[in-house]
Amino acid sequence: MQLAVNIVVLSAIYALIACGYVLIYRVSRVLNLAHGELMMLGAYLLVATASTFAGDPVVAIAAAVVLSLVVGVLVYVLLMRQMTGEMALAAVLTTIALGILLRGVALAVGLGLVWMLAVQNLISGLAAPLLPWVDSAQRGLPGPGAGSLVASLGAPSGTPGVESLMSGGPAALVVAAYLVGFVALGTVVLRRRDIL
Fold this sequence. Notes:
By secondary structure, the chain is mainly α. The chain folds into two domains: about 1-125, no CATH class; about 130-195, no CATH class. The protein contains seven helices and no strands. It has helices at about 1-30, 35-50, 55-80, 90-130, 130-135, 140-150, 170-190. Helix 6 (about 140-150) packs across helix 7. It is globular, with a radius of gyration of 22 Å. The termini are far apart.
């Protein structure tokens, strides 16, 4: 019975996705190749609002819908309206570029979460009890720094990844140092144009 319900739900989701493709194409005569990435962004917004409004799912869904509408309006105003009067290929290429951008951001966020939740937890759980210097070295990693910063801002103690390993000031310095370092590294790589 559960398999039949899963098939019906998945089929309804695919039908909804297809309706979205057709609706966008029929209205604008542009094939939106970023449709999947925009749906992924909507799903991420729903996860974010569901964790923010954990006690009230109706408010979380309403907030996710409003945020998704804002994203859609921004995509139209900033990108697609600029393509008015251009060849249809320019609009299609714009949607491809938007899809690549959203996929790149999602990949970076996903890999960062895997690093913070898996690798750093393995380091703290396995290596720290065996090697005494690992505990002090952890204070320089971005995950414990971000967790300590969140803890100093008043997050509940049972939140995953939130531990008060250091006070708010040093934690903010660690997170800011990583932010500045990665922005500088990204700037150097883009200036050299080795990856573009």
